[in-house]
């Protein structure tokens, strides 16, 4: 069972599809992500405010985006290839009365078009063992999804490799059980 950990919507249960096709972040890993992001170490403790725009790639249930909105982020875009997951996320946004703060996009994250806007914080949680992180990072840069100072959080398989552009700074890399957590910053 996925729930929102903290903020305005704390303890709200995040609905998921019955025949789940994705691997949601574990509660422990989600807590670790938000502990790092709210520490103020990289963002001066100003990351979650009404001007913060979140991008949740491979969003699935939208757990990371909804947690961010609960903590005060102003807007979230959820991108996923699975229509049923996005429909469930849409229903959850409506139940919280934040449907105007959520944009749902049904596309393959490996085919990202040119961006209409850039984002303050990007979550990337792709399927494990698919060699996706390097490809997606190149697309985000090439198609202008990043702005100077964008924080990027990636959850990937512990043993998966990745390559980063020279403008990407590794702020934190941690290993958890079968997962690797990367916190990055784009410096343009």
UniProtKB/TrEMBL annotation:
<dbReference type="InterPro" id="IPR002052">
    <property type="entry name" value="DNA_methylase_N6_adenine_CS"/>
</dbReference>
<keyword id="KW-0808">Transferase</keyword>
<dbReference type="GO" id="GO:0008168">
    <property type="term" value="F:methyltransferase activity"/>
</dbReference>
<dbReference type="InterPro" id="IPR004398">
    <property type="entry name" value="RNA_MeTrfase_RsmD"/>
</dbReference>
<keyword id="KW-0489">Methyltransferase</keyword>
<protein>
    <submittedName>
        <fullName>SAM-dependent methlyltransferase</fullName>
    </submittedName>
</protein>
<dbReference type="GO" id="GO:0003676">
    <property type="term" value="F:nucleic acid binding"/>
</dbReference>
<dbReference type="GO" id="GO:0031167">
    <property type="term" value="P:rRNA methylation"/>
</dbReference>
<dbReference type="Pfam" id="PF03602">
    <property type="entry name" value="Cons_hypoth95"/>
</dbReference>
<dbReference type="InterPro" id="IPR029063">
    <property type="entry name" value="SAM-dependent_MTases_sf"/>
</dbReference>
């Amino acid at each position: 069972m996925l729930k929102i950990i903290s903020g305005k919507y704390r303890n709200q249960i995040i609905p998921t599809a019955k025949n789940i096709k994705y691997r949601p972040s574990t509660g422990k890993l989600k807590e670790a992500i938000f502990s790092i992001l709210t520490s103020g170490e990289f963002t001066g403790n100003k990351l979650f405010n009404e001007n913060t725009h979140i991008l949740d790639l491979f969003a699935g249930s939208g757990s990371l985006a909804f947690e961010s909105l609960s903590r005060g982020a102003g807007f979230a875009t959820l991108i996923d290839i699975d229509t049923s997951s996005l429909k469930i996320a849409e229903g959850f946004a409506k139940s919280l009365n934040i449907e105007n703060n959520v944009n749902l996009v049904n596309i393959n994250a490996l085919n990202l078009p040119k961006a209409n806007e850039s984002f303050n914080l990007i979550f990337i949680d792709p399927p494990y063992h698919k060699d996706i992180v390097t490809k997606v990072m190149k697309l985000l840069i090439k198609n202008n999804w990043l702005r100077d100072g964008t924080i990027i959080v990636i959850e990937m398989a512990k043993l998966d490799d990745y390559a980063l552009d020279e403008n990407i700074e590794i702020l934190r890399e941690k290993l958890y059980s079968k997962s690797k957590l990367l916190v990055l910053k784009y410096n343009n």
